[in-house]
Design brief:
single chain; alpha+beta; signal
C-alpha cells in the first residue's frame, strides 16, 4: 500500500471516529428539562445534583430533590401551591416556582428572565 494512501486511510478513520464520538456523546439536561418522554428515556443525563423524576404518564424531567428521592406528585404550572393554610406538601414542577399572585393564593409560575415572582395583586387603596 502506498504511503500516501496509508496516511489518507488513517486520517479518514480518525475523522470518522471523532465525528462519531461527538455525535454520540451525551449532553447535560438542565433542571426542568425532559429526560424521558412517550418514546422512552433520552440519551442525555440530568445536570449534576438533579434526578430524572416522573411528572406525568408521558413525561419525566430533571429535578433537584432532597435525598435524591422524587416526590410522589408535582404541582403543574398554573396549579395552586399555597394559600392561607401555607404551602401544599408537594413541590412545583421543575422549571417553575411557587409565587403568590394574591395574598391568599399562590400558583406554580415559570419565572421571567429577571428571576422574580410577579408582585401579588391585592386590595387597591384609594
Amino acid at each position: 500500500m502506498p504511503a500516501n494512501l496509508s496516511r489518507l486511510l488513517v486520517a479518514f478513520i480518525a475523522a470518522v471516529t471523532t465525528v462519531h464520538g461527538a455525535a454520540t456523546s451525551p449532553a447535560v439536561i438542565p433542571v426542568g428539562g425532559l429526560c424521558s418522554g412517550i418514546a422512552g428515556p433520552v440519551q442525555d443525563t440530568c445536570v449534576k445534583g438533579s434526578t430524572c423524576c416522573f411528572v406525568s404518564p408521558d413525561q419525566s424531567v430533571c429535578a433537584v430533590v432532597e435525598g435524591g428521592k422524587c416526590p410522589d406528585h408535582f404541582i403543574p404550572e398554573g396549579g395552586f401551591c399555597a394559600g392561607f393554610a401555607g404551602p401544599l406538601p408537594f413541590p412545583c414542577v421543575p422549571g417553575t416556582t411557587c409565587c403568590y399572585l394574591f395574598p391568599d393564593q399562590a400558583v406554580c409560575t415559570a419565572l421571567p428572565p429577571n428571576g422574580a415572582c410577579p408582585k401579588p395583586q391585592g386590595k387597591v387603596e384609594s
